[in-house]
Specification:
single chain; 134 residues; alpha/beta; 2,3-Dihydroxybiphenyl 1,2-Dioxygenase, domain 1; 4-stranded mixed β-sheet
């Protein structure tokens, strides 16, 4: 078997509308499809990133909260590639999103930071473009 890449990541939201607004309005993911599944009393929102990777946002009544602190086994965080970390941080803080201080990956020399989605899911912004100084 040869994995070709990540197709999608699924996230369960405690407040579907709040998380939908965050992922579309703040992070800028594009809506591919939105479906209400009556048999599950659940919404499913398919979102796309520019590289084709998708995020599925679900609502499930009564879903338990995610254990984030202390960190639990399982998926640790989602990381989004950004071209300009300073621009991304400014955009987010301008919309009231708390962002951790920018750090530098000691192995790659790349800059990154963390924030949380409306349910506290850790999200990383990882700068992939080369920075230049004039």
């Amino acid at each position: 078997m040869n994995c070709l890449g990540i197709h999608h990541v699924a996230v369960i939201a405690s407040d579907y509308e709040r998380s939908k607004a965050f992922y579309t309005g703040v992070l800028g993911l594009q809506v591919v499809a939105e479906t209400y599944r009556e048999e599950r009393d659940s919404w499913k929102l398919d979102l796309a990133l520019p590289d084709g990777t998708q995020l599925e946002l679900f609502s499930f009544p009564g879903a338990p909260p995610r254990a984030s602190y202390p960190e639990a086994c399982g998926l640790r965080h989602l990381a989004f590639a950004v071209a300009d970390l300073d621009e991304a941080v400014g955009f987010l803080t301008g919309r009231g999103v708390a962002v951790e201080p920018v750090r530098v990956d000691e192995r790659t020399g790349k800059r990154f930071t963390f924030l949380a989605d409306p349910d506290g899911l850790p999200l990383e912004l990882y700068e992939v473009a080369q920075r230049c100084s004039l």
